Amino acid sequence: MVESGEGSEQGPAFLTLNTNATLKGVVIYYPRQDPAEIPKPYPYAVAMRGKNPAILDVELLNPYNGIDATQNERHLIRNVQGQPLRRGIYVDAIYDIGRIENVHFNPWWSMSPKVFKWQQENGEAFIFARTDWQYVLNTFAFGYNIGYRFIESKTGACNGNFLGIGADDCFTAVQVDQCAAFGLLITNGEFVSFHGPDPTMVRVSSSNSGSIRFVNSAFWGPCNQIAELDGKGTTGFSDCTFVQWDGQKKNRPAIHAKAGTVFVRGCEFREDKDHIVLEKGVKKSVVTDNIVPGEIRVKKGS
User: Fold this and answer.
1) What is the pLDDT of residues 72-89, one digit of tens each?
2) Is residue 229 part of a domain?
3) Of the residues 185, 241, 254, 300, which has the maximum number of CB atoms within 10 A of its CB?
4) Above pLDDT 90, what percent of the chain?
C-alpha cells in the first residue's frame, strides 16, 4: 500500500528499479484514493532506470501515475494490469530497445461516475516520446481520453513496432503529435471510440512530420470519424476494416485528410457514407483497391 506523495505529481516514484532489478508478483494499491471521488495526484508508482529493468506480473490497482519508463536501456514490462488513472506507462529517452508486452488497463477498481468521467477527460494509457525501436505486443486500454499518444520531447520522438494493440471507449484511440521519420508500424490493432466531444479513433496532429502505418486493423463504434489526418508526414491504411462512423449524422467522412501524404489501399468500408475527404493541403494520396457498399465516395475539400 502506498500513502506517501499524496497531493502532487512531483517527487520520486514509490519504487525505483535500477540496473538488472526486477519487480515481480506484487499489487500496488493507493488506499487513500477514494473510488467515488476525483482522483488525488501522486508521483509515479514505479520508475525504471539503468540497464535491463523489468516489471513482471504486477497489478497497478489504482495509481494516479503508473510506470515511468524513461532514461533506461532495454526495459521489459510484461503481464501488467490495473487502472492507472492519469497516466499508465510513459516512455522517453530510450536509445536501446524497450519491450512492453501483455498490458491491460481496465477500470476494475472504480467506474463510479466521478472517477470514470475524470479518467476519460484526463487519462492517457500509453505515452511514447523518444524511444528507438520500441516493441509493443498485445496491449489494451479502456476508458481513457487517449489510448496511445505519441509526442516529441526534448530528446526526440518514437519509432517502433506495435502488434495486437487495442483501445476501447477512449475519446481518441491513437493520437500522433509527432513520430520519427522511419515511423510507427501498427498491425492487428482494434480501436473503438464512441464517447467524448468528438470521438475519433486516429488523430494525427499538424505538428507531425513522421510516418505512420496501420495494417490489418479494425476500427468501429459509433464515432464521428475514423481518422483526422494533418501535418507534413505520411499516414497509411492497408487491409483495414472501417465501421460505424458519422455517428451524429453530420456527413462526417470516415477519413478526413487535411494535409500530408495519405495511402488507403485494400481496405473495407462497411457503410455507404462519405469515405474519404482530401483537403487541398494533402500533397500526395493513393486510394486504391478498396471495397465499399455502392460506389466509393472520395471528395476534395475546400
Assistant:
1) 999 999 999 999 999 999
2) yes
3) 254
4) 95
The string of DSSP letters for the chain reads: ---TTTT-S-S--SEEE-TT-EEES-EE--TTS-TTSPPPP--EEEEE-EES-EEEEEEE-S-SEEEEEESEES-EEEEEEE--SSEEEEEESB-S--EEEEEEE---S---HHHHHHHHHH-EEEEE-SEEEEEEEEEEEES-SEEEEE--BTTB-EEEEEEEEEEES-SEEEEES---TT-EEEES-EEE---SSS-EEEEE-TT--SEEEEES-EEESS-SEEEEE-SSSEEEEES-EE----TT-S---SEEEEEEEEEEES-EE-SSS--EEEEEEEEEEEEES-B-SSS--EEE--
Cell numbers that stand for 193 in this block:
471510440
Residue 105 counted as domain residue? yes
Domain of residue 155 covers 22-40+95-300
* pTM assigned to the model: 0.97
Kindly state whether residue 90 falls inside one of the protein's structural domains: no
pLDDT in tens, 9-23: 999 999 999 999 999
Number of domains in the chain: 1
